[in-house]
Specification:
This protein is of the alpha+beta class and 426 residues long. It contains 15 helices and eleven strands. The protein is elongated, with a radius of gyration of 33 Å.
């Protein structure tokens, strides 16, 4: 072990007349510990919220969407085969999406509550694109969309049995319409206004499932039906969007794959990925996370100023020892290294304790859901936590750099001390 480190560690130990200096060193160490602890916990919680929100959005937003561009008549059947051949693509499925009016029926068959909604017609059987949607289902299954269900309805006071296709709705929308499991709802396409006689523009469905994402925009407006029912309901609807929804092997490769598909499809198609569809939201979350990092890093910066004060006082107290070391042949750089070692030691010990405690606290909060939230006000019932090694490494690196940087000024002061001048007056 080099003598600079040994002397630096010895200077941190207090003699009786230097207890005040050591007290400030302890305060500095505590400040670094608290700062890194708060910073690691905050980043873990922010990462948890960010990932949880992303997963909830992707349950209802395709990772990549391919649609017709304007009046384009691109051959999507051929394009689907070409896209599916891309190695990074995990699944490709068609979809239809359009606004519709949802009308609930009461027990007498009369229309009651009316609400607008966004209808998504999907391929329900073995559809990997809808894996996240399955996790949000509180009741029912996607397989219920492709089957017909025998139900009893009342029309003009008469009861009769009919076969109806299934629909899955958001829990909030079901509550707004007053429908329950097995209840019926009529979907009316906007194209039904002024439509030609004989063309079906409204269709009755039976509720075969509820989903609950925790995001009110989705839970209060989305309705899922089968692709074949969507084609019948929205045939001739110029406002209906149709195309392909894709699932990729690596979520974060979506922007690069989007560019590849755009080049493959040419000018006749529009290709968007999940980062574009929710760009403002994710940008705001990224900025908020960075802001938390910078604000909480100020705690470590305050502790770094305490380190400066501690080492300056150590230099003043140890002027005679420094002069003797220089007179014995120690280089100026070696004297500076002594105080750099002191600052680095305070930073390393404080950072190790703070980051370690922050990791342990974050792990416990996430595993045992120690911080509960009102489920009716927030998307989640407990604070989500994600432990990313990069966050802890960034906190540790920033903290140590600040502490070592704080030791530069005292080290330069010690380096410039003249041994002749000090010994002359001591």
């Amino acid at each position: 072990m080099r003598y600079e480190l040994l002397i630096g560690m010895r200077y941190l130990r207090a003699r009786r007349r230097e207890r005040f200096v050591s007290l400030i060193a302890v305060i500095s160490l505590t400040g670094v510990t608290l700062g890194t602890f708060a910073l690691t916990v905050a980043l873990a919680v922010m990462s948890g919220f960010q990932e949880d929100l992303r997963n909830r959005l992707l349950a209802f937003t395709p990772q990549i969407t391919v649609e017709h561009s304007g009046t384009s008549t691109a051959d999507f059947a051929q394009l689907k085969a070409r896209i599916a051949a891309i190695p990074e693509i995990a699944a490709v499925e068609p979809f239809i999406s359009s606004l519709a009016m949802a009308v609930a029926d009461d027990t007498s068959g009369s229309p009651t509550y009316v609400s607008g909604g966004l209808v998504r017609a999907v391929e329900p059987k073995d559809n990997p694109v809808l894996e996240e949607l399955k996790d949000t289902l509180e009741w029912g299954s996607l397989e219920g969309l492709e089957k017909t269900h025998r139900v009893t309805i009342t029309e003009r006071g008469q009861q009769r049995e009919v076969d109806l296709s299934g629909a899955i709705v958001g829990k909030a929308l079901a509550a707004e319409l007053g429908v329950h499991s097995g209840g019926t709802v009529t979907l009316i396409s906007p194209a039904s206004v002024g439509a030609l006689p004989g063309i079906p523009r409204l269709k009755r469905f039976v509720i075969v499932g509820y989903f609950h994402s925790g995001m009110f925009d989705f839970d209060s407006s989305l309705i899922f039906i089968s692709l074949k029912d969507g084609r019948a309901l929205f045939a001739g609807d110029s406002q209906a969007e149709s195309g392909l929804e894709l699932r990729v092997a690596n979520l974060f490769d979506a922007p690069a794959i989007r560019a590849k598909i755009a080049a493959l499809g040419g000018p006749g198609v529009d290709v968007t990925d999940w980062t574009e569809a929710n760009a403002p939201l994710f940008s705001a979350l990224k900025l908020e996370k960075f802001t938390y990092f910078m604000v909480l890093l100020l705690i470590v910066l305050v502790a770094a100023f305490n380190i400066i004060a501690t080492l300056v006082m150590v230099v003043m107290e140890r002027r005679k020892e420094i002069a003797i070391l220089r007179a014995m042949g120690a280089r100026a750089g070696s004297v500076a290294s002594i105080f750099l070692c002191e600052g680095a030691a305070l930073g390393l010990v404080g950072t190790a304790i703070g980051v370690g405690a922050g990791f342990a606290a974050s792990f416990l909060i996430g595993k045992y859901q120690l911080i509960r939230l009102p489920a009716d006000l927030f998307m989640v019932s407990a604070v989500p936590v994600r432990l990313y090694p990069a966050n802890f490494i960034a906190v540790a690196a920033a903290s140590i750099l600040l502490c070592v940087g704080a030791a530069l000024y005292p080290a330069l002061r010690a380096r410039t001390l003249s041994p002749v001048e000090v010994i002359r007056y001591e």
